[in-house]
Amino acid sequence: YAKENGRNNCKFFEQDMNARAVQRQSIEASLRRALERQEFVLHYQPKINLQSGTIVGVEALIRWQHPERGLLAPAQFVSIAEDCGLILPIGRWVLREACLQAKAWQLAGLAPIIVAVNTSALEFRAKDFLENVRATLADTCLEPRYLELELTESVLMRDAQSTNCVLHALADMGVKLAVDDFGTGYSSLSYLRRFPIDTLKIDQSFVHQMTSNPDDATIVSAVISMGKSLKKRVIAEGVETPEQYAFLLAQHCDEGQGYYFGRPMVAEALATLLQTGISLTLPD
Ligand code: C2E
Ligand code: MG
Ligand code: MG
Ligand code: MG
């Protein structure tokens, strides 16, 4: 009976695997079409200087306006795009679009802000990555200091000579570098002294419970003070409540990003927010 059952499980598993493989293939094909038909859009989420309450930057976050399935979040297609290599042309589109938009806001008379672009490991390791960044900045006339690349610890962990070269070349160009989801990778902290990193982004998993969980509070405070000592900007991701904002302010965290300050939004809405500003209230 057990044997029979095991065999059945196996069969179900195989069917499941096949179904998944077919589903992935069809997503892959439609991703390819999406690029041609320009179905991707960027939403922009504000990053706030906690002391002044002003918007100092935005993170560009990709969305897929799917003709039948509606607006899709990155979780539904980015890892597939990474697996099949399509993240390379998609990433080039994201970088260009984000730089064009940042420049367009400047030309519209808005105070310059930094636009941050997520960069996957595959993109970062591509031979032409550095050249593409350089050419995109030149083409879009965006000053390099207004571009920040968000990298995960998995990219920085590879102690290859090439990683070091690319990071230093970007820093020499004037492009800013941030560690995304800080504290969630398998990290040795030694990359912090090796690489020219400007910003640490504290992962939202530490931020969500930090006002109720003392361990999370300790971790967040420790990252802030380490960042300060290392002369890096520290930003907390996933800030959703005034209590979290107050905590970060009291800990002298530099910046915050999260639903409390603003959700990811289309470029026009972000421009309006840049003009009106964000009004913030602390809890009593
Ligand atoms: P990430 O870079 O860590 O981006 C932050 C994610 O947290 C975004 O999800 C954002 O919408 C969400 N978020 C922001 N504030 C809050 C908050 O207060 N509460 C909660 N619960 N969530 C918040 P999103 O847009 O779904 O993106 C997910 C991930 O997809 C990103 O994580 C990033 O790793 C990846 N991604 C997004 N756009 C791109 C892209 O253009 N290229 C690449 N390679 N990856 C991207
Ligand atoms: Mg990011
Ligand atoms: Mg993150
Ligand atoms: Mg993340």
What does this structure look like?
- With 284 residues, the protein is an alpha/beta fold.
- A hairpin with a 5-residue loop joins strand 1 (40-49) and strand 2 (55-66).
- An eight-stranded mixed β-barrel has the order 1-2-4-5-6-7-8-9, surrounded by four helices.
- It is globular, with a radius of gyration of 21 Å.
- The relative contact order is 0.12.
- The protein has helices spanning 2-36, 78-83, 87-107, 121-125, 129-140, 153-157, 161-173, 191-194, 204-207, 214-229, 242-250, 267-276, and strands at residues 40-49, 55-66, 70-72, 114-118, 147-152, 176-182, 199-202, 233-236, 255-256.
- The protein starts with a helix and ends in an 8-residue tail after the last helix.
- It is built from twelve helices and nine strands.
- Helix 3 (87-107) packs parallel to helix 5.
- It binds ligand C2E and magnesium ion (3 copies).
- Residues 45, 61-62, 73-75, 78, 87, 91, 94, 118, 120, 150, 180-181, 204, 237-240, 257-259, 264 line the site of ligand C2E.
